[in-house]
């Protein structure tokens, strides 16, 4: 149970200010670190101004990209070059050439900074083990399952490390981690591996709230079926991208959210963070459309404490101005709906 | 056992070409410059494949953003749809949206417009031995498209093959690789007959192959190259002049050893009672960093020696 109704949250990334993105890879450490800190503070302020309740880590200003960042802090990965994703867009895809080991904390510096500079609720996004496996070449381990579990072991070490820092600074307060797994449903036949590696990541860590973020899945039912087996408290999913930009609360008005009824049929009572604004379009959805999206979801899950409200995914692909407007409309819509409950 | 080699699909671009495309996208260089760079790199690759002894190779199609993109742009009645995941990978293609298959006019000029795909010709005009055209298989093209009207697979296939024939003629190609990334199931390959009757066709299949797929062919294919699954090589050897196997993994950076491969491929050939066999990559090499693709090609060249 969440305890709050329709809590608003962000999902992770936000567009970096020009002064940071320009220097991120070219500047020296002493030059870039203060820029990361400045950008984090500015983004946290922007999230607060938009009215978000959970302000996360301030848009992931300490990280360039979810795979690359993780890879920087482990040994056993080798980079031969860039691999194309689509058109002229490329990403760094590492090859696992020996046993994977964590060399130092992936997010310790970011969390330490946030603990010193932020008082709000924080949800830490961390790239999940299945996605790290799926986005790597494997030259070392026996099979994909073994790779995913190896990444899960690293994640478990990392989360324990972060929790120690959290407990020292904020004893008794809720420690929240969001495991980002965009690759989760890419291979439906590997859902056993998904469940096993996620559970390995959180194994033995008490006093924390774990959520799973998945986006752009062809079919969430593959995931919903396995949700009860995952040692998590909730899911944060993308839906707006597959929805219509019209008002209305009928099934045909809200095609993007229809399959939430399958989630509602699962046995356990995990919360659902619902994506209500599309991060892939510049169009700022009107408050009325977002309101109807929320109302439609409440028609399926009649428990506003089990629902959180968020963008589909990180907003780093939009400008900071558009990102802010999208968050602001999301908060207004949420307040309008919550006010009438 | 005679081992031949075949490379097909989109080849990864060099770092320099990748940077040039970025410059083109930012309008720092113009169409003539980028077309020239594509041609230069394509010709270098063709020369390298040819001189290193690769038996057959499709055009490196460096300028294709995905295997359907040029055809969605050029074919009348087709357009580009949304970005869609390519099978179970982290790579995406633009979904072909098919409205009509009635007009076989091909709009070649759209390849040089530079919209939605960098400008360059479909294939190089190279006359090097082994140089082949490259096309997506009609079965996969249909399965991986958004077919808007009530167009049957048979109508679609006949239309697309007719266009492929026109393209072969226009570019003076002497043979073609046809790649089907989708398994056939019960589908028949007979729509390919007009092409097979006129040109040597090297067909690269995916998954299980059955006699049902190939029984309607009027004549032999130059080769059927299949995944290493029970029964595939038997069908391939009965219905093509030289059977082939996908033995070079284009989805992993782990390097194959030429010696091990020679032994393994020879054993497969002996078991299938054939004296010639073709070894090919499992997918477009574009799934790998360029450096690794080049090394895998070198292994293939050793195999053919």
If you had to describe this structure to a student in words, what would you say it looks like?
The complex is a heterodimer of chains A (341) and B (305). Chain A has helices at residues 18-21, 29-50, 66-72, 108-117, 129-134, 144-169, 191-202, 221-224, 260-264, 287-300, 320-339; strands spanning 7-8, 74-78, 82-86, 89-92, 95-102, 123-127, 137-138, 175-180, 208-214, 234-237, 271-277, 307-311. Chain A has 341 residues and is of the alpha/beta class. Chain A has one domain (7-73, 105-339): TIM Barrel (Alpha-Beta Barrel). A 7-stranded parallel sheet of chain A has the order 1-12-11-10-9-8-6. The longest helix of chain A has 26 residues, at 144-169. By secondary structure, chain B is an alpha/beta fold. Chain B has helices at residues 15-25, 31-51, 69-74, 138-143, 153-171, 193-198, 211-214, 232-239, 258-271, 290-304, and strands at 2-7, 56-58, 78-85, 92-98, 131-136, 146-147, 176-179, 201-204, 221-226, 240-248, 276-281. The mean pLDDT of chain B is 96. Chains A and B meet through strand 3 and strand 7 of A and helix 1 and helix 10 of B.
List its traits.
heterodimer, A: 341 residues, alpha/beta, TIM Barrel, 3-stranded mixed beta sheet, 38% helix, 18% strand, B: 305 residues, 8-stranded parallel β-barrel, 10 helices
What proportion of the residues of chain B is helical, as a percent range? 25-40%
Q: Taking all residues together, what is the mean pLDDT of chain A?
A: 95
The helix-strand sequence of chain B is EHHEHEEEHEHEHEHEHEHEH
- Taking all Cα atoms into account, the compactness measure Rg of chain A is 19 Å
The number of domains of chain A: 1
């Amino acid at each position: 149970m969440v305890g709050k109704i329709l809590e608003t949250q962000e999902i992770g990334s936000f567009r970096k200010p020009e002064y940071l993105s320009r220097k991120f890879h070219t500047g020296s450490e002493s030059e870039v670190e203060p820029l990361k800190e400045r950008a984090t503070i500015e983004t946290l302020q922007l999230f607060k101004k938009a009215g978000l309740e959970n302000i996360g880590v301030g848009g992931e200003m300490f990280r360039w990209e979810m795979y690359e960042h993780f890879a920087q802090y482990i040994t056993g990965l080798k980079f031969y070059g860039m691999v194309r994703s689509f058109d002229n867009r490329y990403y760094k895809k590492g090859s696992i050439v020996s046993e994977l080991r964590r060399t130092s904390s992936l997010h310790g510096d970011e969390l330490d900074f946030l603990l010193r500079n932020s008082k709000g609720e924080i949800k830490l996004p961390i790239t999940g083990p299945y996605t790290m496996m799926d986005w790597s070449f494997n030259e070392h381990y026996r099979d994909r399952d073994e790779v995913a579990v190896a990444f899960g072991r690293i994640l478990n070490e990392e989360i324990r490390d972060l929790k120690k820092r959290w407990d020292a600074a904020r004893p008794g307060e809720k420690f929240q981690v969001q495991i980002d797994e965009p690759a989760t449903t890419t291979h439906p036949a590997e859902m056993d591996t998904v469940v096993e590696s996620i559970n390995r990541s959180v194994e033995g860590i008490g006093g924390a709230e774990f959520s799973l973020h998945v986006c752009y899945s062809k079919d969430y039912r593959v995931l919903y079926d396995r949700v009860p087996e995952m040692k998590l408290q909730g899911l944060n999913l993308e839906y707006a991208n597959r929805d219509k930009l019209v008002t209305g609360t009928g099934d045909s008005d809200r095609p993007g959210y229809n399959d939430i009824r399958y989630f509602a049929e699962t046995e356990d009572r995990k919360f659902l963070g619902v994506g209500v604004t599309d991060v892939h379009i510049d169009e700022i959805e009107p408050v009325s459309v977002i309101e109807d999206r929320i109302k439609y979801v409440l028609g399926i899950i009649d428990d506003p404490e089990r629902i959180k409200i968020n963008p589909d995914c990180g907003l780093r692909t939009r400008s900071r101005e558009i990102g802010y407007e999208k968050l602001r409309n999301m908060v207004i819509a949420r307040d309008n709906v919550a006010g009438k409950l | 056992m005679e081992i031949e080699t075949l490379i097909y699909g989109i080849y990864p671009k060099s770092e320099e070409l990748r940077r040039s495309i970025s410059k083109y996208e930012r309008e720092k260089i113009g169409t003539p410059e980028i077309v020239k760079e594509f041609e230069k790199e394509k010709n270098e690759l063709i020369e390298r494949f040819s001189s290193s002894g690769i038996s057959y190779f499709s055009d490196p199609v460096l300028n294709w953003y995905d295997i359907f993109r040029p055809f969605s742009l050029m074919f009348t009645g087709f357009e580009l749809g949304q970005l869609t995941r390519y099978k179970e990978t982290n790579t995406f293609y633009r979904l072909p949206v098919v409205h009509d298959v009635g007009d076989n006019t091909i709009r070649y000029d759209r390849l040089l417009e530079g919209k939605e795909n960098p400008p360059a010709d479909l294939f190089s005009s190279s006359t090097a031995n082994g140089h082949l055209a490259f096309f997506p298989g009609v079965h996969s093209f249909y399965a991986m498209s958004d077919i808007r009207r009530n167009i049957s697979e048979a109508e679609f296939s006949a239309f697309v093959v007719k266009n492929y024939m026109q393209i072969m003629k226009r570019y003076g190609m002497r043979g073609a690789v046809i790649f089907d990334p989708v398994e056939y199931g019960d589908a028949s390959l007979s729509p390919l007959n007009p092409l097979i009757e006129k040109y040597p066709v090297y067909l690269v299949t995916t998954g299980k192959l059955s006699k049902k797929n190939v029984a309607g062919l009027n004549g032999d294919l130059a080769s059927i190259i299949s995944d290493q699954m029970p029964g595939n090589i038997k069908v391939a050897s009965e219905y093509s002049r030289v059977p082939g196997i996908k033995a070079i993994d284009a989805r992993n950076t782990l390097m194959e050893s030429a010696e091990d491969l020679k032994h393994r491929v020879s054993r497969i050939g002996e078991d299938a009672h054939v004296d010639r066999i073709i070894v090919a990559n499992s997918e477009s090499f574009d799934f790998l960093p360029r450096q690794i693709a080049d090394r895998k090609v070198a292994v293939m060249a050793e195999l053919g020696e």
